[in-house]
Amino acid sequence: MLLNVIERGPEEASGQDAGRPPVVLLHGLFGRARNLGFFQRRLARTRRTLAIDLRNHGASPHGLMDYNTMSADLLDTLAHHNALPATLVGHSMGGKVAMTLALMRPGMVHSLLVADIPPARTGHGQFGLGEQMLHVSFPPYLNRAGADMLLQHYIPNADVRALMLQNIRVGENPGWCIGLREIVESMPNVESWPYIPEGYSYPGPTLFLAGANSPYIRPEHYMTMRRLFPNYRLELIEKAGHWLHVENPERFAELLENFVETY
Fold first, then answer.
1. The domain containing residue 143 runs over which residues?
2. Do 116 and 228 reside in the same domain of the chain?
3. Residue 252 maps to which CATH number?
4. Above 90 in pLDDT, residue 124?
5. FRET label pair with 227: which of 69, 150, 154, 168, CA 20 to 30 Å apart?
């Protein structure tokens, strides 16, 4: 499956950056490529960048999901855009897609940054949310303010509601513009971690970023992280939880840009 791509880069490639790997940005569950536009624009001043809508998200096609399938989508899409090997940057579900591709096809990944997700079954706390969203009844016409009011009954948290609002088609014949049913049916796979054959690892530079207030990356994951990603290091982002790139964007951008420029 070829995925929707938003590509940005410098108007003129400098000699310093010519030939350097492109940077690929992967969103989390219920997100989309344009959520990462702030970071993409900063990186694109000197690097070719591709922000990807994963399957069932944004403008990409729909279908059942698991991490081997999603990493195959990513590989096919990057090959189609002549963007391999690449530096992969993934948050949450996107981080699991990036890790899976790095482990199964390490030669296609130049370096790897994973934002607040370990290589383990974690859950995302969104299974109930997805099922609730399937039962939303849309009126014949809806603007953005009306969509916000419609979702308040189901999602009292304003930040989570803003995330879901971007997935609603407003105007006449409103509805979900994402593969919501496919996401819900695939949620056990999304919350899990794929089988990785014994002996597989990714030897390239790997940076895990963890929100200091997030429960996702824990000490019990470190042994697995070292086995699968022997050259990893871990950085904590203060004053941030799981949405570390939203809650502390400047620190996230600083660590991201340093990593990309170093490798």
1. 127-185
2. yes
3. 3.40.50.1820
4. no
5. 69
- Total structural domains in the chain? 2
pLDDT tens digits for 78-122?
999 999 999 999 999 999 999 999 999 999 999 999 999 999 998
Three-state SS letters, the chain = CCCEEEEECCCCCCCCCCCCCCEEEECCCCCCHHHHHHHHHHHCCCCCEEEEECCCCCCCCCCCCCHHHHHHHHHHHHHHCCCCCEEEEEECHHHHHHHHHHHHCHHHEEEEEEECCCCCCCCCCCHHHHHHHHCCCCCCEECHHHHHHHHHCCCCCHHHHHHHHCCEECEECCEECCCHHHHHHCHHHHCCCCCCCCCCCCCCCEEEEEECCCCCCCHHHHHHHHHHCCCEEEEEECCCCCCHHHHCHHHHHHHHHHHHHHC
pLDDT, tens digit, 9 for 90 and up, residues 194-242? 999 999 999 999 999 999 999 999 999 999 999 999 999 999 999 999 9
| Predicted confidence (pLDDT) at residue 175 exceeds the cutoff of 80 | yes
